[in-house]
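Key result, reporting period 2: structure in, sequence out.
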């Protein structure tokens, strides 16, 4: 696989970390820039970590090589997270920054490991047997990213909020990518129970957004900040429903300008 968004194969410093987050996790990157200054760097590092995992299939064409890269991340997190790790560093700028954020904010390394596992699933084209498997992947990837952002911001909400946010945001993301994934033989995340993107992603995403918004009265400002990327869910779903499905990964259903404007407007109004 190849993609113009994956032109770099290494992360050599803070500027590259920011660029990585901006390129592959644009919504989370923009949201981070709008949140309290003392937490921005940590949120951008988390977004860059997810971005780095997402671009692995673009950087390498052989599944075995991709598996080696995913395992490297598991091994590094395991080696640097234990009680005997001390100040051990991997020498990889992003990995070391991630470990520092996890330590500073007491983030569960289990959530980070789950993100790696979920990202690796993209390399397996075998359709899921049950619809629940798709939800598990979304919770481990998108849900964990929301929860980690919440922990950085000091948010205490029922765990179900992160799961609903994962269904909404992840569903919109996968609906937009469905035709492209299918065209290259990648994992489409549809099960035998859900043969198309509408049943698998669009309907559950819309229902999940209703559920999240029903809880927003009880949410504080920080909780809404952690969930800011959700502002793009409905615009993406509307665009997916009205335009022909794209098979080019470089063409997104919503422009970066439109995404940034939507997130900024939601932030100003205190909405999700």
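The corresponding designed sequence is given below.
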């Amino acid at each position: 696989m190849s993609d113009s968004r994956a032109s770099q194969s290494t992360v050599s410093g803070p500027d590259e970390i920011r660029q990585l987050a901006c390129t592959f996790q644009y919504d989370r990157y923009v949201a981070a820039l709008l949140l309290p200054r003392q937490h921005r760097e940590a949120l951008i590092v988390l977004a860059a970590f997810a971005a780095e995992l997402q671009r692995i299939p673009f950087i390498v064409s052989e599944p075995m090589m991709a598996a080696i890269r995913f395992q490297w991340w598991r091994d590094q997190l395991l080696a640097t997270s234990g009680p005997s790790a001390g100040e051990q560093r991997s020498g990889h700028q992003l990995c070391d920054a991630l470990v520092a954020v996890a330590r500073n904010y007491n983030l569960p390394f289990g959530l980070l490991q789950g993100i790696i596992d979920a990202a690796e699933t993209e390399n397996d084209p075998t359709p899921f047997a049950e619809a629940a498997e798709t939800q598990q992947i979304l919770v481990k990837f998108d849900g964990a990213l929301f929860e980690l952002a919440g922990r950085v911001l000091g948010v205490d909400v029922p765990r179900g909020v992160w799961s609903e946010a994962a269904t909404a945001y992840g569903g919109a993301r996968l609906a937009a990518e469905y035709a492209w994934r299918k065209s290259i033989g990648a994992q489409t995340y549809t099960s035998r129970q859900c043969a198309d993107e509408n049943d698998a992603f669009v309907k559950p995403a819309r229902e999940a957004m209703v559920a999240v918004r029903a809880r927003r009265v009880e949410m504080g400002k920080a909780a809404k900040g952690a969930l800011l990327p959700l502002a793009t869910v409905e615009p993406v779903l509307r665009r997916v429903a009205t335009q022909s499905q794209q098979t080019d990964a470089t063409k997104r259903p919503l422009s970066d300008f439109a995404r940034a404007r939507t997130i900024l407007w939601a932030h100003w109004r205190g909405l999700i």
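The longest helix spans residues 159-184. The radius of gyration is 18 Å. This case is discussed further under Risks and Mitigation.
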